[in-house]
Design a protein that fits this description.
CATH superfamily of the largest domain: Dihydrodipicolinate Reductase, domain 2
Distance between the termini: 38 Å
Helix content: 25-40%
Structural class: alpha/beta
Radius of gyration: 21 Å
CATH architecture of the largest domain: 2-Layer Sandwich
Largest sheet: 10 strands, mixed
Number of helices: 10
Shape: globular
Number of domains: 2
CATH topology of the largest domain: Dihydrodipicolinate Reductase, domain 2
Mean pLDDT: 96
Length: 364
């Protein structure tokens, strides 16, 4: 951290499990620190602070309102259930707090638009909690996709994120409660697949989405597994599948006219400080079609990072907030745009499911 870069003060609003990981990330980021934690009771907030070894000077708030009124907070991190995002993220922005919001960022894009409008009106930075896009591996993969000689033109993308949730999760977790996270697996696991597809496609929205019939609903009507195909006007296509019911799988494959990119741990790397991906370029069979042509067709690329990807997220968000706080900069709207596009595709997939798996056009 440069001498002119401020240390950004984070307040954690809510004590969900993911807040444990993010609180560690804040501690690891060189330009951030935890200043406060809030829950709906002082006892729960204090217990979270103790369990996660938060700094002794961390303020403990017994209500969300109290945290938002704290003048010593720059950024509010909200790991709350999705149905609470509209209320609390909007209030945070109105209190001039920068917003780090867990995914899915809203139940619908209409709700997200209200959150983003509040952020713009109050000049605060918005970012969602998608961690993998901040890993340095992601930038290296982008270099390959942009290489016209090695990768060519993008034509197809496939993504999958599934995990076999235990019975306790399927019964009691907020992600299967229709009044808390009504999008279920689509909003939780599907968010990652959609974001990965959009990332590979340079964040150009597809024209249409069609949900597949691989749909599983809970007794309460919450999505436990689903998938969709996405289609662009220029002929590109993509598929994703997400589920709470099958073995842990998280792969991403991008196929171009000259090459292919693949990885099997795109959301959470197998190792915290080192991640890899494989590429193939201009591959072909040998003359007798008994194998592949010899030569450096396939490569494995290993990328190291000094801090884990979640701390990379905090570092980048803190840098942006510091530019606003110290230098009078403007919020970077890139992150809000990426969140909105991801949410827009989720909306279309959900609409396709609700309409009997019919194609849905994706507008702006």
């Amino acid at each position: 951290m440069s001498p002119s870069e401020p240390t950004i003060r984070f307040g954690i609003m809510g004590c969900a499990d993911i807040a444990r990981k993010v609180s560690r990330a804040i501690n690891l980021a060189p330009n951030a620190r935890i200043a406060a934690v809030a829950s709906r009771s002082l006892e729960k907030a204090a217990a979270f602070a103790r369990a996660n070894n938060l700094p002794p000077d961390t303020k403990i708030h017994g209500s969300y309102e109290s945290l938002l009124d704290d003048p010593d907070i720059d950024v509010v991190y909200l790991p709350l259930p999705t149905t609470l995002h509209l209320k609390w993220a909007t209030l945070a922005a109105q209190k001039k707090k920068h917003v780090l919001l867990e995914k899915p960022v809203a139940v619908t894009v209409a709700e997200l638009d209200q959150i983003l409008a509040a952020c713009v009106a109050n000049g605060v930075q918005f970012m969602d909690g998608t961690m993998w896009v901040h890993h340095p591996r992601t930038a290296k993969m982008r270099e390959f996709l942009d290489d016209k000689h090695r990768f060519g033109e993008l034509r197809t993308i496939h993504s999958c994120f599934t995990f076999a949730a235990p019975d306790s999760f399927l019964k009691d977790n907020i992600r299967v409660k229709p009044d808390l996270d009504s999008l279920g697996a689509l909003g939780d696991a599907g968010w990652y697949g959609v974001r990965a597809i959009l990332w590979a496609a340079g964040y150009h929205l597809p024209k249409t989405a069609v949900a597949t019939r691989a749909l599983v609903l809970s007794e309460q009507g919450v999505i436990l597994a689903c998938g969709a195909s996405l289609h662009w006007e220029d002929g590109k296509s993509a598929t994703f599948h997400c589920s709470f019911l099958t073995h842990m799988t998280m792969f991403l494959t991008a196929i171009g006219t000259q090459g292919t990119l693949q990885l099997n741990d795109f959301i959470i790397p197998f190792e915290e400080h080192e991640a890899s991906f494989s590429t193939a370029s201009q591959a072909r069979f040998n003359d007798q079609v008994t194998g592949w042509e010899p030569g450096p067709v396939t490569e494995v690329h290993v990328v190291s990072t000094d801090i884990p990807q979640e701390a990379c997220l905090i570092r980048e968000l803190s840098r942006l907030v510091g530019e606003i706080k110290v230098h009078g900069g403007k919020p970077d709207l890139t992150w809000a745009s990426r969140s909105r596009k991801t949410q827009r595709v989720l909306d279309a997939v959900k609409e396709s499911i609700d309409n009997g798996f019919q194609p849905v056009e994706i507008g702006n």
